[in-house]
Amino acid sequence: MASSDERPGAYPARNGAENQPPGDPETMKTVMIDKGAAMMQSLKPIKQMSLHLCSFACYGHDPSRQIEVNFYVHRLNQDFLQCAVYDSNSSKTHLIGVEYIVSERLFEALSPEEQKLWHSHDYEIQTGLLVTPRVPELVAKTELQNIAKTYGKFWCTWQTDRGDKLPLGAPSLMVSPQDVNMGKIKPGLLKKRDDEYGISTESLKASRVDIMGPERKNPMADYWVHHGKGLAVDIVETEMKKLAPFP
Amino acid sequence: MEKAVHLSTKNGPKVPGEPTKTGTSMVDTAASAVQSFAPINQIHQHLCAFHFYAYDMTRQVEAHHFCGHINEDMRQCLIYDGPDANARLIGLEYIVTEKLFMTLPDDEKKLWHTHEWEVKGGFLFMPGVPEAIQRQDLEKVAKTYGKVYHFWQVDLGHQLPIGLPNIMMAVTRDGQLYPEMIKETEKQFGVSMDKERASRAYMKGPDHGIHPLANGGGKGLKLEVREVDIKPVESVPRVFV
């Protein structure tokens, strides 16, 4: 009934500002209630996000569709990170998904079926696609070296790149840029990002020549590269196991 | 039939891994001082509620939402399994007004759930905020619809987020949620849901009533993965990074 690789049914044409979800601007009352509440709540989990990474991702069922992604990262320990993913770094942005990042050690302990859902990070770091905005390369180096050896699992729940004004359909499994035709990021997309951040991906490559990937790159990761098959997600109807009538 | 048991998500297994090394944490400290966190700074609100799996009501999870407004009609929320610094990011939720919900294609409506009973029943609350202030916002939430995905099945004791995402649903009538789970939450946050229910009796749900297609349209929902052929590489022009 819904699939990550399908265009959803007829949906009202876009109007108003490009990329803005439909809806009225926040009322002053809403803003005040929000601010009042925020003063009384500690919001601890979200304060743990201490690193912003900008990179690119591709749709797992069609890697020729590529998007810029902004990760806000919480490192729980040396082997595990959890990230909120947005399609831009502004305050008017869309929460488009979640990515989890694990060390090589944790990844190797996963089942092969699970490993298929994960992607490697070394290529995007070595080629300068993944950047740490405002943090000088020298300062960021340790984290870049860490992350280059990791694997990620990224579910995208809002396909804003195809113009969806609201989050429609099934989540998409995303994959990372790779050193194959379809996995290379389109120059236009890259230039737009570089111009916005005032950086040069090309010149970052030079400072990253010594960054290594995993000890042994696991062939179950980046499944599409090695097997020529992408992964799409379907939502299917089934019977719900119940404790009481629903709804 | 075996009696369904609530598997508490509190005090679950720790995420495996070595403690963060100093050299690594120094990068994060530097980053958090100079980088912009504009999207995260939009998050202004913490809501606690309960979700169950869209194909299995017997599996229920306490869900801590950290929400920001995109505009008056829409919020986007990160979902954690607890309110503390070590909480696991287990999912996300989008919340829209009835106005936006009604614009969705029919098949899409099934993936969304109503908030009316969650709010009116007292099950959804804002930790730390006096009830009278909470109600000013929650009376709006009662009229909205939400779409939730969880990516980490903490109720099964998974140490890592394995498997596919799950659509989640929310309480729509009494008798669905485990009383022991509710009591645990009430105790931890010092709230009384019965008391709050009385104060929320005035609230109304969506103006046009709960849409019959919402909440799975009465069906369970599950996700499956499928292999697809990737477009032939020849059809993609050679590009170089």
UniProtKB/TrEMBL annotation, chain A:
Report the domain of life of the source organism: Eukaryota
Show the segment(s) annotated as Disordered.
1-28
Q: Write down a Pfam family by its short name.
A: DUF1264
* Similarity section: Belongs to the OBAP family.
Record protein name field: Oil body-associated protein 2A
- According to its UniProt entry, this protein's organism is Camelina sativa (False flax)
From TrEMBL, chain B:
Sections of the chain in a coiled coil: none
> What are the boundaries of the region Disordered?
1-24
Query: Which InterPro entries does the record cross-reference, listed alphabetically?
Result: OBAP-like
Q: Which Pfam families match?
A: DUF1264 (PF06884)
Instruction: Give the record's family classification.
Output: Belongs to the OBAP family.
**What's the protein here called?**
Oil body-associated protein 1A
